[in-house]
Amino acid sequence: MTNGFKVIGISVRTTNKDGQAMQDLGKLWGQFFAENIFEKIPHKVSEEIYAIYTDYKSDYTEEYTTIIGVPVTSLDEIPEGMTGREFEAEQFRKFIAKGAMPAAVGNTWMEIWQRDKELNRKYTYDYEVYGAKSRQGDHSEVDIFIATK
């Protein structure tokens, strides 16, 4: 069981169909860094960046929302143009994407999708944690947490 958390960041509604998510998420990450979103978020808990996948229409083949943001202690101040959400505690299965980013994360998701039924996914929310280890070139690591029943 992983504790719940609050997050503030920027979001997009997307789908994995026809490579749409690759484009939308690339733009969202671009915006996150170009607009220095990290610095604008109040009440940060850590230096880690979270990418959260939620509001699934059904499963990974349909629409979902992605939020790129930072865990915070409070949702009292949400900067204009940003999203603030609270996520409840869930049961998660952890995967570690290892290698050059973002390819390693993409490859790990392919593995997760192939094992979709076996993993007994809950589709409440899943998330990635980009910490210090995520910026180590070809030896980077990103933790991916998949909600399970």
UniProtKB/TrEMBL annotation:
InterPro entries: AraC_E-bd, Cass2, Reg_factor_effector_dom_sf, YobU-like_regulator
Domain AraC effector-binding: 1-149
Top-level taxon in the UniProt lineage: Bacteria
The protein's name in its UniProt record: AraC family transcriptional regulator
Species in which this protein is naturally found: Chitinophaga silvisoli
Lineage, opening ranks: Bacteria, Pseudomonadati, Bacteroidota, Chitinophagia, Chitinophagales
